[in-house]
Amino acid sequence: MRISIITVTYNSEKDIIPTIESVLAQKEPDLEYWIIDGKSTDRTVEVAKSYQSRMEAAGILYHIISEKDGGIYDAMNKGIRYATGDVIGILNSEDWYEPYTIKTVREVFAQTSCSLMFGDIRIFRTDGSVFVKKAKLRKFQTSRDWNHPTMFVKSKLYKRYPFLNKGIHDDYGFFLKMRKMNQKVVVVNRVLANFKMGGVSNRKGFRAARQRITDRYQYCYLANGYSKWYLVECILIEAVKFLIG
After folding, report:
1. DSSP assignment of 211-222, as one string?
2. Could you write out the three-class secondary structure of 163-193?
3. How many domains does the chain have?
4. Which of 108, 163, 181, 202 has fewest C-beta within 10 Å?
5. pTM for this entry
């Protein structure tokens, strides 16, 4: 089973180092890694290229593309089109895997024949505190149970149902689509990835929060046939973000 990992970057010369290092640390066979850069103006591409020989020595198929794109989800779709793996994971710049992540993913897909899996994530707040966000599946769907950096999907599904590129929660919209389609989803209660708060999904301010509410409600829930009552969940999510930072 080949596993492809995609990292989308733009001007991430410092943030991308732990991300790349975590992929290099996997020590797993038949691993492919794509870095899809949006034509960075800093040293991001140079830093990525500096790992070429180490990736080759580790047996990792390593590819770097740097060109203009239509946003983060357009770049992810590009990586998905290029990926040759049976399973795809998307790891954003600044996030990083645990050393056992890919081994765990390979075992779960082999043992369960699932279409999609995700696990726990360790989150680093801007104030330096750390907590683990548990992965869950329940009848009432909420993004508080779901962790995108830990999600791995069968390649054929990602290729058949690309991201809409209409909002900042397209990845969650994809997950909801898979659940509506009754694809087999498996949850692993083990930390598979690490995430630093402070990006666009956690940006403070009323305008940013209102945009996230609109995007999640319109392009995730309504687009996938969920009840209009999920607007309440969207508002509550933003309230929780405001309270915990």
Report:
1. HHHHHIIIIIIG
2. CCCCCCCHHHHHHHHHHHCCCCEEEEEEEEE
3. 1
4. 181
5. 0.90
